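Appendix B. One record, verbatim.
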Amino acid sequence: MARSAFAKKERKTFSLSHDVVDYLETGCAQTQAESLSAHLENLIRDLQAKAEMTTIEAATVAYYDNLSSAEMEEQSDWGRVGAASPSRLED
C-alpha cells in the first residue's frame, strides 16, 4: 500500500523520557531525516511493516500446516516444475 508524502497529517503531542528523545534525535541526525516527526513516522512505519509481515508469515505457515498429504504432494510437484522451468535454465 503506497503512502503519499503529502498525506494529511494530524498533530499530536507526546511526552517522552529524555533518553527516548535523545535516541530519536540521534537517529534523526544519522538518517538525515527532514524532521524528528518524519524520523518517528519512518520508525513506526517500519514497525507496522514488520507486524504485517509477521501476520502474513503466520497465515502462510497455518495454510501449509493445514494441507492434506495429497495437497502437499501437489504443491511439491508444482515446486519441482517451477525449479525446472526453462527461464531458470537460461542464465
